[in-house]
Amino acid sequence: MADTASATVRSAITTVGVADPTKRDMLKLVTGSAVAIGVGALAWPLVDSMNPAKDVLALSSIEVDLAPIQEGQAITAVWRGKPIFLRNRTAQEVKEAEGTPLNQLIDPQSDADRVKPGKEKWLVVIGICTHLGCVPLGNKTSDPRGDFGGWFCPCHGSQYDTSGRVRHGPAPANLGLPPYAFIGDTKIKIG
Amino acid sequence: MAGLHKSEFENPVVNWIDTRMPIFTMMQKEYGSFPTPKNFNYFWNFGALAMISLAIMIATGVFLAMNYTAHTTLAFDSVERIMRDVNYGWLLRYVHANGASMFFIVVYIHIFRAMYYGSYKAPRELLFMLGVVIFLMMMATAFMGYVLPWGQMSYWGATVITNLFSAIPVVGESIVTWLWGGFSVDNPTLNRFYSLHYLMPFMITGVVFLHIVALHITGSNNPLGIDVKSPQDTLPFHPYYTAKDSIGICVYLLVFACIVFFAPNWLNHPDNSIPANPLVTPAHIVPEWYFLPFYAILRSVPNKLGGVILMFSSIAVLFFLPWLDTSPVRSSRFRPIYKQLILVMVASFLVLGYVGGKPPEGIYVVLGRVATAYWFLHFLVLLPILGKLEKPLPLPESISRPVVRRPPPGGGGGPLPQGATAKPMEKS
């Protein structure tokens, strides 16, 4: 009696192990996917903890009063740890920026697309060279401003015009524009 | 070519690597086809669970370290920032804090398993001693980790535990000053504890590796405590015990998740939510639950040096356990008296844990002293004597034939009938 029982069990094991590979494959796939999903779900909190925390995100908007900036001058504000150039352009500089034919530009973009309508004299750009991340010179009137009257990067010689557009390499793109809005006649909110 | 491994893997990339560095062959040998006694019960899950615990602690710890600041003026706030601002920071911290408790639960059961089934006996003495080393390193790591949030319990725990060393005659005070890097627990102490708390888990990982090397030389013990006699007594580790361990891991994670999500502060002390204050000691100061039994032994002696010596001895005695227990029989199943005594030993450990969490007065002092006395009586007196006096039950012939047959009237052994093996298999 017991002999027959154990023989049946043994033959059942053989059947499952060899003769029915699709069932075993199915079990392996289901187990494997469950483990993968579980480990992924456990790993995500670890990975996400490296993203900006709430206190870092809370620092991501600033207000700047533009009133003290005289015509022709520029100041640097800090937003998300980056320098932001705020420049009060002279009428001459605005005219030069608007008058530049787009086909002379490395990264063609009109000046109108880089300022707020009615506030053309205010240029707000991220003060980081699009080549390898240095801060270009030109915010102080005593700084070299390059051949185009904007900014000059000391690291590899990129030059930007009075609209912050790249005019001379190796930088590939214009100075970035932060999201901002006028919340008063001479006050802006960046971020 | 000389020295190259002859790999049997068919996948060309695996074969190419394996020929030059046979890690695939090694993994297959140690975790794939590794012959493992076929009669494990669920107590044998706890080694794998301890490994999982260590991995979880290191993973969460590395990410917590990215947001923690080891400075007395910033540590507490940086932990609060982890709780409030860092994405999933609350989860990382609760998993890490409760993970320590889970790790200790698992390791205590793992040690109990070794004691109940005699896994420390020859030839596994070194394996067991490496385990005690891991346990000691875990205690040091857990203690230093508890100091890092720099709450009241952190600070006063650090003060009390480091002051244990001041009990050492003559050089005690100098040692404590050296441990502190000053004249009280302060910023230098916090900095070095952080550094060591980060280092020690990797040292533990190293000793765990040695623990496993030793295990794979001697092979696993089993609930019958008898040696593997033939290939019929074993199963390949994969898929049989990978599957059995997976079930244990699921249950473990379920319990872990319940604590983390429903009672994350159950094992925490409210006092540790108060920033450290070197001028005010909390009214009732207790260590984490997993230290309570040893804390109770410390307090049961009304002498500073005596208490410290007894506390360290209570763990040190485990190093000598393989030689203190003189019985050649491993498993408690065949040791009728030891089977009772080990339960008394566990009871004394639990009593010590209970007493350790109570104020040192009245009945708790008496209970603590009785339990402490039994702890040492058990290991130092009862175990050596018992091996000589106890008459063990007859051992089974092999793992495959676990039922002992009464000798036939005519005497002599003879092979067991086939049916004898089927019966216990149906039960298990």
Mean pLDDT of chain B: 91
For the biggest sheet of chain A, the summary is: 3 strands, antiparallel
**SSE string of chain A, helices as H and strands as E:** HHHEEEHEEEEEE
SS field, number of helical segments of chain B? 16
Q: Can you put this structure into words, describing what you see?
A:
The complex is a heterodimer of chains A (191) and B (428). Chain A has helices spanning 2-19, 21-48, 54-57, 91-99, and strands spanning 62-65, 74-79, 82-88, 122-126, 149-152, 159-161, 166-168, 180-184, 187-190. With 191 residues, chain A is an alpha+beta fold. Chain A starts with a helix and ends with a strand. The radius of gyration of chain A is 31 Å and the shape is elongated. Chain A has four helices and nine strands, in the order αααβββαββββββ. In chain A, the strands form three sheets. A three-stranded antiparallel β-sheet of chain A has the order 1-9-8, with no helix packed on it. A three-stranded antiparallel β-sheet of chain A has the order 2-3-4, with no helix packed on it. Chain B is an all-alpha fold. Helices cover 62% and strands 1% of the residues of chain B. Chain B has 16 helices and two strands. The radius of gyration of chain B is 25 Å and the shape is globular. The chains are: A alpha+beta (191), B mainly alpha (428). Chains A and B meet through α1, α2 and α3 of A and α3, α5 and α16 of B.
Descriptive tags:
heterodimer, A: 191 residues, alpha+beta, 3-stranded antiparallel beta sheet, B: 428 residues, mainly alpha, two-stranded antiparallel ribbon, 2 strands, 1% strand
